[in-house]
Amino acid sequence: EVQLLESGGGQVQPGGSQRLSCAASGFTFSSYAMSWVRQAPGKGLEWVSAISASGGDTYYADSVKGRFTVSRDNSKNTLYLQMNSLRVEDTAVYYCTKEGPQPPDYFDYWGQGTLVTVSS
Amino acid sequence: SYELTQPPSVSVSPGQTASITCSGDKLGDKYACWYQQKPGQSPVLVIYQNSKRPSGIPERFSGSNSGNTATLTVSGTQAMDEADYYCQVWDSSTDWVFGGGTKLTVL
Predict the structure, then answer these.
(1) How many CA atoms, within 13 angstroms, populate the side-chain half-sphere of residue B3?
(2) Tell me: the pLDDT tens digits for B36-55?
């Protein structure tokens, strides 16, 4: 059974940093691209960042480019999102997602999400 | 940048057919997928590559994509289908993009 378990959310002040983690299990992690998707309270879904299976290629939404960094440790089956220079508008539930077998592809599994609140 | 447009809400009576549209420039040239999200839960993939259903998704969910419009159809709608639905595509100019979401209400 595929499982994606996010952690690292919480409250942070504007301008601060936060690191999210996503522990994956139930599939060969190193074979699949992964993405982060966020959802602000009461709003729709917004793709944030993606990383290839090997970790050699990374992609970012314009809204986070230069502030967020996605990475992965295939030896630990873990995906990360380092968020710097956080803004109030970054407040959202952040979901870890697994891509389908032929990237760029749909997101076939989602984690339960972790809430990041940026507030003073 | 590429944009997808969905109606904010769609209403349907139990047992009837609901159609949710997703519009974008030359959308039919891309692969569209659909997610269902119930309150307080994570999204679930219900349609991928325009019309394919993942394992475990009921047959009453179907999809199509042509021209500028992708459509999610729920046949014989049940109360449990009440949820928000999001379309999504990948575009070379914006990477992954979601529609704004449609709230399906089963009256």
Answers:
(1) 4
(2) 999 999 999 999 999 999 99
